[in-house]
Write a structure and sequence with these properties.
397 residues; 5-stranded mixed sheet; 33% helix; globular
């Protein structure tokens, strides 16, 4: 922790995660307790991350927060819950004689500054990365170690999964107080080095129906959601085994089926919720045509609560599939960089492959592609030059 002048500052980063077994619906909205367990892959922070600086000073008059350059309302109930719960845990450990707890900062107000390097609220799990980063940074500020996913969950449900790297399950738990509704790592990010994720950014605009509002309506009106809750436990076991065995075919098919069922429950909601758009549906069609051509499951899609696709594949398939995407969704000229993240090689497309996908190209249908892989959980940044809050305690411009 850097202590410059009278402001103690800590800066951390946290990752986005993409669920392959989806979380949708709460049995307790206040504590954010889910109606089913879920499972996700943590994306590498070289491509997608939230960065948060927390500063504490006895001179601060009130808690304040800036998100992506704009000061926001610190009174947001979920923000307040995370602040309260981290402070409560820090006081509890201080009172029990924990030598690591930081008494000075615990009695001070905090200033928080957070930025994402990806679109906020566009179906890319920005709230998960943001709340995981906040909880991790506060914990570092107060000298806390150990299990923190229960607190992150109370900021944003899927944030608990962003507290770990690699392949992570969020156990729904059964206790009314939520103390057993926590995240656990199934395998580290090094477990499946060939696995790649392609984020196809269709639309970086804010969602029409937020995840929170959508879930509430689905729980109230969708009979299909009740059926889904019954079959997820078996799916969780099957997915865990597929990951442990690095069985891509099984992993890919479960991922697509679960994504489809999640969006089916959104359609079963009344009024129905449409997170996918026409481009999303074209991507689904493209993936199935591609797999049919090769007569095996080489790529898989999943969609969270938004139109952007995340494609899972193995490293050796990336170049060819990206070429197919570029062919059917040609990038706009003079637009932003189309390929981001890990390098992709240009390869020729075989005519039989093109002829097996009878689709008209849609120029600009996909804004850009991020090529990434599984990555680690939250990280502490030691370099003080990366602080987002200055020595004056205010967000840097």
């Amino acid at each position: 922790m850097a202590q410059d002048g009278s402001v103690a500052r800590v800066t951390c980063t946290a990752p986005v995660n993409i669920a392959v077994i989806k979380y949708w619906g709460k049995r307790n909205a206040d504590l954010i307790l889910p109606i089913n367990s879920s499972l996700s892959v943590t994306l590498h922070q070289d491509q997608l991350k939230s960065t948060t600086t927390v500063g504490a000073s006895r001179h601060f008059k009130e808690d304040r927060i800036w998100i992506n350059g704009k000061e926001e309302n610190i009174g947001n109930p979920r923000l307040q819950t995370c602040l309260r719960e981290v402070r409560r845990l820090a006081r509890k450990r201080r009172n029990s004689g924990d030598e690591n707890s930081n008494t000075l900062t615990l009695n001070s107000k905090v200033h928080i500054c957070s930025v994402n390097n990806f679109p906020t609220a566009a179906g890319l799990a920005s709230s998960a990365a943001g709340y995981a980063c906040l909880v991790y940074a506060l914990a570092k500020l107060y000298g806390l170690e150990g299990e923190l996913s229960e607190i992150a969950r109370q900021g944003s449900g899927s944030a608990c999964r962003s507290m770990y790297g690699g392949f992570v399950q969020w156990i729904m738990g059964v206790k009314e107080d939520g103390s057993d509704s926590i995240a656990q790592q199934i395998e580290p990010e090094t477990h499946w080095p060939e696995l790649r994720l392609l984020v196809l950014v269709v639309n970086a605009e804010r969602k029409v129906v937020s995840s929170t509002a959508g879930m509430q309506t689905t729980v109230k009106t969708s009979p299909l959601l009740k059926y889904r809750a019954e079959i997820v436990p078996e799916r969780m076991m099957e997915m865990s085994e597929a990951i442990k065995q690095r069985d891509f075919e099984k992993f890919a098919q479960l991922t697509m089926k679960d994504s489809n069922q999640f969006h089916a429950t959104c359609l079963d909601t009344f009024p129905p919720i449409f997170y996918l758009n026409e481009i999303s549906k074209c991507i689904i069609n493209l993936v199935h045509r591609y797999n049919s051509h090769f007569d095996e499951t080489l790529v898989a899609y999943t969609f969270d609560a938004g139109p952007n696709a995340v494609i899972f594949t193995l490293e050796q398939q990336v170049d060819t599939f990206v070429e197919v995407v570029k062919h059917y969704f040609p990038p706009e000229e003079n637009g932003e960089q189309f390929l981001k993240g890990l390098p992709v090689n240009s390869v020729p497309l075989a005519e039989p492959l093109k002829s097996s996908i009878p689709m008209d190209p849609i120029k600009g249908g996909i804004r850009y592609i991020i090529n990434t892989q599984a990555g680690p959980g939250p990280q502490l940044i030691e370099d003080i030059n990366h602080h987002l809050i200055g020595e004056d305690g205010l967000a840097k411009q």
